[in-house]
Amino acid sequence: MTIEHISDTARWVALYRAMESERPDAHFRDPFARALAGARGAGILDAIPKARTMGWPMVVRTVLFDELLRERIAQGADAVVNLAAGLDARPWRMDLPQSLRWVDVDLEGILRHKTEAMAHHPPRCGYRAVHADLTDADTRSRVLAEAVDGARHAVVLTEGLLVYLTREQVTVLARDLAAQPAYRWWITDLGSPLLERFMVRAWGDAVSRGTAPFRFIPPEGTDFFRPLGWAEAEFRSTGDEARRLHRTMRGAWLWGFMSLLMPAKRRREMRRMSGAVLLKRTDD
Description:
Blueprint: H1 6-21, H2 33-47, H3 56-74, E1 79-83, H4 90-93, E2 101-106, H5 108-117, E3 126-131, H6 137-147, E4 154-158, H7 167-178, E5 183-191, H8 193-203, E6 230-237, H9 238-245, H10 252-259, H11 264-271, E7 274-281
Parallel strand pairs: 1-2, 1-4, 2-3, 4-5
Antiparallel strand pairs: 5-7, 6-7
């Protein structure tokens, strides 16, 4: 079984959230994740080499997005727009203000699956699901504008999305977001070419031979976004945060030891290999 469609990744990652939630020392509880992932999510996980031992970055990413989002809400965010929302259950599992507006945007199939599964579970905030193909320019511009109509301090989430887009698509998305003044913050994940090489060694072509290959891995890192209206406000390294959360990969101690022998430039590259990024408007 391969990843045949980008929506399959939502089932795959949901299963990692379920596995974390079932741990006695879980960093978050997502009681809906296993049912949302379903049999296909389990099948994908079983088909990818070493996948069950490689879930720690997904868990770390979930925790970091949760933390960054809570901080933005504490700073006055009044709307969240989750692009390619997939099977994310934050509107149901997180402690959110009732006044908060949450808009999920994704393809009809995956969002319909989620909303039907969650029909008997009330969300913690105002919730709306919008079916849209974000690769369609006119649709994307309209949806992004309507999602923040009346909002003043919106957060946009792109968790696990950008890596599947081309540089050109990310460029247009960044400009579309910057064109709407209500979007104040952008939380995303970002990988480097070093991460791509690591994943090829770890997983082979299990991902690339499907129809959802990785595309956006900018060598310039977050500097890519600055000419498009967005600047890095915070970068949380997956490796650093994994150690904080005690969710490191097997043999992480050896990587830590080896890093002490590396030149400072190489250590910086390792730290920036992947992470969760908070972007803010450059005109703020």
